[in-house]
Structure prediction request, 122 residues.
Amino acid sequence: VQLQASGGGLVQAGGSLRLSCAASGRTLGTYAMGWFRQAPGKEREFVAAVNWSGASTSYADSVKGRFTVSRGSAKNTANLQMNSLKPEDTAVYYCTATSYFGLGFPPSYDHWGQGTLVTVSS
Prediction:
């Protein structure tokens, strides 16, 4: 599975960005997909995830109410709509996926994209 993230860029605080992740190599109909981020000098952290069907989502407390994760209709894409961005959201955002056809979300992810940089200016 290859994952390609896009949509990063520079935005002012309070603005919005939409990240997209496109998967290739196989159909991800039974895969959970997620987003992680890593800020300079910090460890990578979980941001959001969407389950195999797209019906269930999970968010880090720091982004709840501001970010929305979703699956595309073909299930091989995942999107992260980011609103009310803050300078502390500045990071490289990584798209992830793993086979997980069940309730809840996987404890880890097997496939990672190359990352897209999001910079929020104050």
